[in-house]
Design a protein that fits this description.
Blueprint lengths: L11 H17 L2 E6 L6 H16 L2 E4 L11 H10 L4 E5 L3 E3 L15 E3 L3 H12 L3 E6 L20 E3 L6 H5 L2 H22 L8
Parallel strand pairs: 1-2, 1-3, 3-6, 6-7
Antiparallel strand pairs: 4-5
Length: 208
């Protein structure tokens, strides 16, 4: 008499469970970071954002953003603060949203009569909160956005160093293949890992 044994094929439920576990394990090996962006993007901006997420994940980081990856039953500012406090770095991308022109100011003449691009309000709030908490920050903006507004205006140390994406003349691939991006992103990712080690290092009591 001979007997043969074969491994049973996994059922659909088992396949689903395995896939869910693999996804959890994959996230467990990634360091969470706050990806500050807007939910309103055009096709080109969407391509840029998808490539940015791929770059972040390739560096074994986990991008979290409101309200896509998570949402808490609290006020918006509390949600932002909670996400900042539970992340080890912030990467903000400030896309063009509104093309505006200043027609009048409350005192004197308008600072400029030239129309300009504004980004999302939260692209000001979220980096400011991240700076207050002291996590590594990387700022990327679509060229010409908020050039005289808030943390993106320049001259606000240390938030005066950021990368411009020239969307009018530079393709998505050209930007992410540039030496400037690869160098700055690698430095920021290293700072994120350093911050992770500092905040998760267990305390040892060697005193006897």
């Amino acid at each position: 008499m001979t007997s043969t044994s074969t491994n049973p094929k996994p059922t659909d439920n088992e396949k689903g469970t395995t896939s869910a576990i693999d996804e959890c394990v994959d996230r467990a090996f990634r360091i969470p970071i706050f990806l500050s962006t807007t939910n309103t993007v055009n096709d080109l901006q969407g391509q840029f954002l998808n490539r940015l997420v791929a770059e972040i994940e390739e560096a074994l980081l986990f991008p979290r953003t409101l309200p896509v990856s998570e949402q808490y039953p609290e006020s918006i500012l509390t949600n932002i603060r909670r996400l900042v406090f539970s992340s080890y770095g912030l990467l903000a991308i400030n896309f063009r949203r509104f093309f505006v022109e200043i027609l009048q100011s409350n005192v004197g003449q308008p600072p400029t009569s030239t129309p300009f691009w504004e980004g999302s309000t939260f692209s000001q709030i979220e980096p400011a909160m991240a700076f207050q908490f002291g996590i590594p920050i990387l700022l990327v903006r679509e060229r010409g956005t908020d050039v005289n507004n808030g943390v993106w205006a320049g001259g606000i140390t240390p938030l005066n160093i950021f990368i411009d994406w020239d969307s009018d003349n530079q393709s998505v691939d050209d930007f992410f293949n540039s030496v400037q991006w690869r160098e700055v992103f690698a430095n920021w990712a290293a700072e994120v890992r350093g911050n992770y080690l500092l905040r998760t290092e267990p305390l040892f009591n060697n005193q006897h």
